[in-house]
User: Which sequence fits this backbone?
């Protein structure tokens, strides 16, 4: 853990009147739709400074959302895309024991030593698969990274389980092999 963050957590009881675990328990009884609402609540109702309020809310959220929650939330209203997601994971898991699957709030990072793929439900009918290559030209199907920016070099749009064909599997494997 970052030293400044640890110092802030250590100073929390003296500066805010409660420990981090006490704040986390307290926030479990509340419901806020936005991060800023919770921060403002702590500032106004409990006279917590902005820095402490922001830290308390951020660390409380981390604990409340598990990896499975992240994936579940990504596919809410897009359940028809789950078979594509699950099929892609099955292919990726075949590559080896050194693959780490890391769900985040809006996407799932696929990592070897470096991230080599990113899976993101882009719309209600499409998953965007980001891949990382060195000097690979784009094609009609293997597009530039688009919304992924520098996280990936290329993107493939998937609307159907049948889109996970031999060509896509080859690209996934190549991206995996580049991530040594």
Assistant:
């Amino acid at each position: 853990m970052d030293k400044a963050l640890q110092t802030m957590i250590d100073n929390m009881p003296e500066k805010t009147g409660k420990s981090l675990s006490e704040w986390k328990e307290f926030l479990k009884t509340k419901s806020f739709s936005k991060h800023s609402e919770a921060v403002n609540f702590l500032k106004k109702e409990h006279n917590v400074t902005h820095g402490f309020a922001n830290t308390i809310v951020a660390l409380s959220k981390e604990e409340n959302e598990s990896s499975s929650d992240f994936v579940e939330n990504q596919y809410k209203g897009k359940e028809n895309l789950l078979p594509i997601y699950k099929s892609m994971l099955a292919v990726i898991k075949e590559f080896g024991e050194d693959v780490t699957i890391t769900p985040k709030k809006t996407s799932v990072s696929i990592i070897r030593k470096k991230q080599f793929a990113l899976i993101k439900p882009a719309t209600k009918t499409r998953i965007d698969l980001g891949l990382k290559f060195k000097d690979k030209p784009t094609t009609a199907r293997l597009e530039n990274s688009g919304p992924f920016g520098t996280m990936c070099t290329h993107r493939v749009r998937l609307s159907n389980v049948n889109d996970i064909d031999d060509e896509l599997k080859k690209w996934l494997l190549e991206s995996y092999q580049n991530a040594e």
Notes: The mean pLDDT is 89. Helices lie at 3-16, 20-28, 35-46, 50-64, 67-74, 82-93, 166-178. The chain has seven helices and six strands.
